[in-house]
Design a protein that fits this description.
There is one protein chain. By secondary structure, the protein is of the alpha+beta class. Helix content is 52%, strand content 18%. The strands form 2 sheets. The protein has a 5-stranded antiparallel β-sheet with strand order 4-3-2-1-5. A 3-stranded antiparallel β-sheet has the order 6-8-7, covered by helices on one side. The protein is elongated and about 130 Å long. The relative contact order is 0.07.
């Protein structure tokens, strides 16, 4: 290389500068090639570690790409510095671009951040019946941006993760059991104890109603036209709706069998100043 520079007639100072920068650029290119290989290996190692820790595959792949991107950015800054390029302005430009992108994608980044948290902390899983973001449904899938639900009438609801994480999350499956509550009114002339015993017999006859916690029936209030009973019991989450429906039907049939009435609102019309016959039959023409 020295002979080549001599033939070009380049002076000693310029020759030293060219050789220095040539060496720097060569080392920078070598570092770039080796750095790409090391960054890929480190990112893949991080993904495998996350997968061994049972982190969601989607999240593990996303974090792998984040790690790889950060390593490549650091590598490029180091390579440019080694090649003699001032990196301060380059770092400032990256920061300004990141700020602009963050402001432009504020809602998307919020969804992304909540998606990572939902996948990490798992307040619900696929198959759980939940209320999230004001929507009821069965969880179909969760990705980094949205949560997909199937509603009870078989529609798909796509809820942004920022709305899911920013509101109350109700998971109906996580505890394994649920309590149901029914309210039934009986007539004032009926035997309250007998009505309550009928309900207890129905508890004992249905194995889906759990014995612990124990079910119960109580007098809740003395209403305008009925004595109101409140009935509570526990079942597994999967049995709740069917058990509640069966119990309600059984109460109606048993009350009819034992002559226990279930009152409904009634109105009585009295005509002031009418004859006694009209009082008894106010709709009869006079």
């Amino acid at each position: 290389m020295t002979d080549f520079l001599d033939r070009l007639g380049i002076d000693h100072a310029m020759r030293v500068l060219i050789i220095t920068y040539s060496i720097r650029i060569g080392l920078a290119l070598l570092l770039l090639l080796v750095g790409f290989w090391i960054a890929a290996r480190l990112a893949n190692f991080g993904r495998r570690a996350l997968e061994r820790a049972r982190v969601d595959v989607t999240l593990a792949g996303f974090l792998r790409n984040i790690i790889y991107g950060i390593l490549i950015a650091l590598l490029l800054i180091q390579v440019l510095g080694m090649a003699g390029v001032p990196t301060a302005s380059f770092i400032a430009a990256i920061g300004a671009a990141g700020l602009a992108i963050g402001l432009a994608l504020n809602s998307s980044l919020s969804n992304l951040a909540w998606g990572v948290l939902l996948i990490l902390f798992r307040p619900f899983r696929v198959g759980d019946y939940v209320t999230v973001g004001g929507v009821d449904g069965t969880v179909e899938s969760v990705n980094l941006m949205h949560t997909y639900l199937i509603t009870p009438d078989n529609r798909q609801a796509v809820v942004p993760n920022a709305k899911v994480g920013g509101d109350a999350i109700i998971n109906y499956n996580v505890r394994g059991t649920r309590r149901f509550e029914l309210k039934v009114g009986i007539g004032y002339g009926d035997d309250i104890g007998k009505a309550m015993q009928v309900v207890r017999d129905l508890f004992a006859a249905d194995p889906r109603i759990l014995k612990d916690p124990a079910p119960g029936v109580w007098t809740e209030a003395l209403g305008d036209s009925s004595v109101n009973l409140v009935i509570r019991g526990w079942t597994t989450t999967a049995d709740m709706w069917e058990t509640q429906t069966t119990l309600l039907r059984g109460i109606k049939e048993r009350f009819d069998e034992y002559g226990i009435t279930i009152p409904y609102p009634q109105s009585e019309i009295r005509v002031v100043g009418a004859t006694p016959e009209a009082q008894q039959n106010p709709l009869q023409p006079r």
